[in-house]
């Protein structure tokens, strides 16, 4: 069992509140969940491949991956998350740090980081986490990482109306400038790092993961006031998800999405230098 990192108190408090798990299972968050499923089901090798879900939280993604037939091993720094995820059928879970995985070299068919990069404000730590994923995945295996978009806080707080509050607006504007979200009760989230869509390419490259491809998850649709109604209607939901898939790689739209997945295949030859 790996030693979990020491999380800032506000980050730990946010996740112990359970809001993140609920966010993806209901309301507007369903678009992110369903689009994550859509992208990963196209990228991952077929089951029963071994998937290492790093920073997997309570198992929101591990649950459907296991149901699809994957052998899922979840790693997370929050003990309560590990306890809950351990109860999911087909999922094993353990405490650990994305920057120092217990997994052996080339032992996973895919490594997912669908949350860790959010809470690693230092670039060196993000590259280290990606390099650990590359080490743990087999040659030719998939490494996929989620990031929050640099302007997501501004877009979200304008939609909610909170951007009219000067203090909240200052927090959102700072994120758009340097990527760092300083914890503030009006932001709706906790201390985190928000990526410019281009900078993740350099982080993948420095971690020894060449040729990454980016996938916008929600696209511009995340900010539509009518989003819930579209997601609740099966016919309109199908049309919306299809549109999001067609727009997912458009470089002119990447910065407008709320979340993005970047994925690459681990090189088949040893990385030198």
Automatic annotation (TrEMBL):
This is Methyltransferase domain-containing protein. It comes from Microbispora corallina. It comes from the Bacteria. SUPFAM superfamilies: S-adenosyl-L-methionine-dependent methyltransferases (SSF53335). Pfam families: Methyltransf_25 (PF13649). The lineage of its organism: Bacteria, Bacillati, Actinomycetota, Actinomycetes, Streptosporangiales. Residues 51-141 form the Methyltransferase domain.
């Amino acid at each position: 069992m790996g030693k979990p990192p020491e999380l800032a108190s506000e980050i730990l408090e946010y996740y112990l509140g359970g809001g993140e798990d609920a966010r993806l299972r209901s309301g507007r968050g369903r678009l992110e969940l369903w689009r994550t499923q859509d992208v990963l089901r196209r990228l991952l090798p077929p089951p029963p491949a071994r998937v290492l879900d790093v920073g997997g939280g309570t198992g929101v993604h591990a649950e459907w991956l296991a149901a699809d037939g994957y052998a899922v091993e979840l790693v997370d720094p929050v003990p309560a998350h590990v306890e809950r995820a351990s109860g999911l059928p087909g999922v094993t879970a353990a405490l650990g740090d994305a920057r120092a995985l217990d997994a052996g070299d080339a032992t996973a068919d895919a490594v997912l980081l669908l949350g860790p990069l959010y809470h690693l404000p230092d670039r060196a730590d993000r590259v280290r986490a990606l390099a650990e994923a590359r080490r743990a995945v087999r040659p030719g295996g998939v490494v996929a990482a989620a990031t929050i978009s640099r302007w997501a806080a501004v877009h979200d707080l304008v939609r909610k109306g909170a951007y009219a509050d000067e203090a909240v607006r200052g927090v959102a504007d700072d994120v758009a400038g340097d990527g760092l979200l300083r914890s503030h009760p009006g932001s709706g989230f906790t201390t985190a790092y928000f990526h410019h869509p281009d900078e993740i390419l350099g982080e993948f490259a420095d971690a020894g993961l060449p040729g990454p491809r980016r996938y916008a998850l929600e696209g511009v649709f995340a900010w539509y006031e009518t989003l819930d109604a579209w997601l609740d209607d099966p016919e309109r939901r199908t049309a919306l998800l299809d549109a999001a898939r067609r727009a997912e790689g458009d470089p002119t739209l990447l910065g407008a999405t709320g979340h993005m997945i970047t994925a690459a295949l681990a090189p088949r030859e040893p990385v030198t230098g």
